[in-house]
Specification:
about 270 residues, alpha+beta, SH3 type barrels, four-stranded antiparallel beta sheet, 11 strands
Length: about 270
C-alpha cells in the first residue's frame, strides 16, 4: 500500500512540474503587441535631451560635480556629434552649482507623443499668399512664457479668471427721500400756504413743534421729520421764529433732482391796544 501511495505522489508531482514548464514556455514566447515608438523620429530634440541628461548623470557620478559646460562631456561620456547637434539646435545649459544644473531644450520642443496632432496655424507677420496677420501684444502683462518648455499663453480674447462674474450694479441716480403712498393734507398744500397758516411754534429742550392751519381753519402739528409741501419736502429743523424745509426739485437743464432749503418764517402778531 505504501508503495502505491508513493507512486501516486510521484506521478502527481511530475504532472505539476510538467504543467509548470509548459506554462512558462508559453508565456515566454508571447510577444507584446504593437511596436514601441521611435522617440528620435517623433521629436529628435527629446532624444538628444535624454542623451545629454544621462551623460551628465554619469559625469557627476564619476567626478562628484556636474560639468560647467557641455563641451566637458565630449569623449568618454558623450560623442562629439551629439554635442555638436545640441549646440546647433540651441540647447541651453546652465551651471547652477556643483550639484545642480539646468538643461533647457530649444523653444518649441514638446513632450514625446505617440500620435501626432494637428498644430494650429502660427501667428506670424504674414501667411503664405494671404494678408499680413494682426500684430499681437508682447508685453509681460498680455503674454506669459516659460523659458524651459517654450510654452506660451496669450490671454487676448479670453475671459479674465480673476474678474468676478457678478458685477456690482451701477450707483443709481440720487432721488428724493421715499414718502408714504397716501399723501397727508400737509403734503397736498404748497409751501406758501403752509407759511401763511403757520400760527405758532413751541420751542424748548423737550423738542420743537409748530402749529399749521389750512384754509378751512383745521390745525396740524408739525415736527422735525414731518413731510410737507408738494415737492417731497421734509421739515429739517424748527427754530423759535422759523421752520427749515428741505424739498427736491428737478434742475431745468441737468435733469437731476437737487435739494433746496426753504425757510418758513413765523409772522409776528402785534398786540391790540
Amino acid at each position: 500500500m505504501k508503495d502505491k501511495k508513493t507512486i501516486i505522489l510521484v506521478v502527481v508531482l511530475l504532472a505539476l512540474v510538467g504543467y509548470y514548464v509548459w506554462y512558462a514556455n508559453k508565456t515566454a514566447n508571447v510577444k507584446p503587441k504593437g511596436q514601441a515608438p521611435d522617440v528620435a523620429k517623433i521629436d529628435p530634440n527629446q532624444a538628444t535631451l535624454r542623451k545629454l541628461n544621462k551623460a551628465i548623470v554619469r559625469y557627476k557620478k564619476d567626478k562628484g560635480t556636474v560639468p560647467k559646460n557641455l563641451v566637458e562631456l565630449k569623449g568618454s561620456y558623450l560623442d562629439a556629434k551629439t554635442i555638436d547637434d545640441a549646440v546647433a539646435n540651441n540647447f541651453e545649459y546652465k551651471y547652477v552649482s556643483a550639484q545642480a544644473y539646468r538643461l533647457i531644450p530649444p523653444t518649441g520642443t514638446t513632450a514625446v507623443r505617440v500620435a501626432a496632432k494637428k498644430k494650429p496655424p502660427k501667428k506670424g507677420p504674414a501667411a503664405a499668399g494671404g494678408a499680413p496677420a494682426a500684430k499681437t501684444l508682447s508685453s509681460p502683462a498680455t503674454k506669459l512664457a516659460t523659458t524651459e518648455t517654450g510654452w506660451q499663453y496669450d490671454p487676448s480674447g479670453k475671459p479674465d479668471p480673476f474678474k468676478p462674474f457678478i458685477l456690482a450694479s451701477r450707483p443709481q441716480e440720487e432721488v428724493a427721500p421715499k414718502v408714504r403712498r397716501q399723501l397727508t393734507p400737509l403734503q397736498k398744500m404748497p409751501l406758501s400756504e403752509i407759511q401763511a397758516g403757520l400760527k405758532a411754534i413751541i420751542w424748548g429742550r423737550l423738542g420743537s413743534k409748530a402749529l399749521v392751519e389750512d384754509a378751512t381753519g383745521k390745525g396740524y402739528v408739525v415736527q422735525e421729520g414731518t413731510y410737507v409741501g408738494q415737492h417731497d419736502g421734509i421739515v429739517k429743523k424748527i427754530y423759535q421764529d422759523r421752520i427749515v424745509v428741505e424739498e427736491y426739485r428737478r434742475h431745468p437743464t441737468k435733469g437731476q433732482l437737487e435739494a433746496n432749503e426753504v425757510v418758513l418764517k413765523l409772522k409776528k402778531v402785534e398786540a391790540e391796544e
